Amino acid sequence: MSHAWTSSGEKRTIWWHYGPSDGIMNYLRDMRDAVHYGLLKAEEMRRINGKIPSPIDLRREIRPWFDSTYGYAKHHVNPVCRSSVAIIRSFRKNRKGKKYPEVRKLSMRLDSELVKLQDGFIRITMKPHEYEYIRVNENHSKYDEYSKYGISELLLTDRKVVLSFKKPDQKEIRVRKIGIDVNFSNLSMTVINHGMIENVSTKPTNNIVKIQNDYSRRRKKIQKHIRNPQKRHRKLMETRGRQSKRVKDALHKLSATLVRENPDTTFIVEDLTNIRKNA
Predict the structure, then answer these.
(1) Strand residue runs (E) in 30-118
(2) SS3 state at 136
(3) Sheet strands (E) in 112-262
(4) Which of the residues 6, 54, 152, 202 has an alpha carbon 20 to 30 A from that of 221?
(5) How far apart are CA 91 and CA 203, in angstroms?
């Protein structure tokens, strides 16, 4: 996964009814209560910052409470935050006369890090070295085909098990390739055709640098002139959001131009994920 909360490739899903154990029922009730608490915190953060928090921001806020209250494995806080943010976003869009969102259903989506197929069972990590087991419906017509792929997520309710697998993308490698090295002010590109270097060039990214510098100056002014801490924080968050959107738009236009200028080509870009940890 490129990120713990995302998955690439196509999903393939099977589901079946089951009888949950007492441990799973207690877990689902705890998660329902945790999602309710996450909703309250998300609404509180929305009122302070002027926007609904991301699941990552909410996780940073409620993790100490979650760990001290339940003692479940640390990954369980992730689906709680995703569910809380998704519910409050849906509620504010379609509230239908209600004052507060409600959490009634016993259901939870578990990350793949918490789930493993083992000897015909789904093994769920509840706490460190503590597991719950659910028998897999191996008679499902698609189980043998889909189980060859990695697990994407598991949806548990008090009646149903929904197991999703992720089928990896099958990407064709073209004869002509362009390797791209991302620098702060330009892109360094090496064109390889039939195994031979065809061309080496650079493409400036001055507009992106200008966006970064402009918003850096704006943040300095905000920090200098706005004394109210809550208002200052809200303004800083607004500028970061606008900067991010403008940079994404500039990168999208740049990538679209590269693809248009180089048809029938495979692009190879360096992976900067966790570069500081790996350095």
Answers:
(1) 107-111, 115-118
(2) coil
(3) 115-118, 121-127, 130-135, 150-157, 160-167, 176-182, 186-193, 196-204
(4) 54
(5) 45
Residue of 173, 168, 178 whose CA lies nearest to 269: 178
CA dist 106 and 34 (Å) reads 12
**Number of CB atoms found within 10 A of residue 163's CB:** 25
In whole angstroms, give the CA distance from residue 33 to residue 71.
14
pTM over 0.70, yes/no: no
Give the separation between CA 258 and CA 276, rounded to whole angstroms: 28
| Contact by Cβ (8 Å): 21, 126 | no
- Distance CA(213)–CA(220), nearest Å, equals 11
Closest CA to 162 of 120, 119, 122: 122
**Digit-coded pLDDT (tens) for 13-52:** 899 999 999 999 999 999 999 999 999 999 899 989 888 9
Question: From its phi and psi, is residue 274 left (phi > 0), alpha (psi between -120 and 50) or beta?
Answer: left
R_g of the chain, CA atoms, integer Å = 24
Which residue type is seen at 119?
D
| Tokens of residue 106, six digits | 């016993």
Q: How far apart are CA 6 and CA 15, in angstroms?
A: 21
CB 32 within 8 Å of CB 106? yes
